[in-house]
Amino acid sequence: MQPLDGADLPGYRQVAEHAWTDDHGDVISLHFFDLPPDIPAPLEEPVPLRQALAHVTAGAGGGLIEADVVQVAGLPALRQVLKVPLPDRPSGLAFLGSYTLPRAACSAVVKVQAFEAGPTGMREALVLAELGPEQYFLAHPYAPGLRGGLPFHRADAPEYDARFPGHPLTRVRTALAHLSGTLRADPDFAQLPPFTGPAGRRTRLPGWVSKRTRRDR
């Protein structure tokens, strides 16, 4: 089954049956997982859902920036934006955005990946210099006692996207916003029984968010 369609964006070119890229090297891809969704709580319970997702992402060495339940293609979807270190490099981050449309026994995912290149950390350094450390670093809003992973800080806030239009985090959010209005769901997928909660499996990051995250070539 290919449950979603309509992922192509202006400036992106198709490089595989369900994958597109642009001149930045950003990648959009569509996926179907014929397994019960690995989501740690029902979508109707945002507090435990966000808390669990923040801990899972930190445990894998990354940082959860945003997690929200939205409507995509007429279906409830989990929207996530997160950051992970680029492997095999002393600095630099990959920013990953996704919509997961879970059903009871399967899920569809649209993923956006964007990578830092050249000098890294400029957005963070400029905002830190303006605010100072006390206002810059924040407790994670979804899990205030969270330890480990990448820090939660003000530079990742959407309010700074307009100042840094070329930053990979800005590009991920821009792509997600466009996709939310263009994606279409296959009627057969939309009619499947809905996701009502986890099936008891141990929650972990999806396979596309791992130490193997790399720049697609």
Question: For the CA atoms, what is the radius of gyration?
Answer: 17 Å
* Poorly predicted runs: 210-217
Going by CATH, the architecture would be 3-Layer(aba) Sandwich
Major β-sheet profile? 7 strands, antiparallel
What is the CATH class? Answer: Alpha Beta
Topology (elements, then pairings):
Layout: E1 4-5, E2 13-16, E3 19-21, E4 27-33, H1 46-59, E5 63-72, E6 75-85, E7 93-102, E8 107-115, H2 122-131, H3 133-136, H4 168-182, E9 184-185, H5 187-190
Antiparallel strand pairs: 1-9, 2-3, 3-4, 4-8, 5-6, 6-7, 7-8
Please characterize this protein's 3D structure.
- There is one protein chain.
- The protein has 217 residues and is of the alpha+beta class.
- It is globular.
- It is 22% helix and 27% strand.
- The chain has one domain (4-189): 3-Layer(aba) Sandwich (Protein Transport Mog1p, Chain A).
- It has a 7-stranded antiparallel sheet, sandwiched between helices.
- The two termini are 26 Å apart.
- The protein contains 5 helices and 9 strands; from the N terminus they run ββββαββββαααβα.
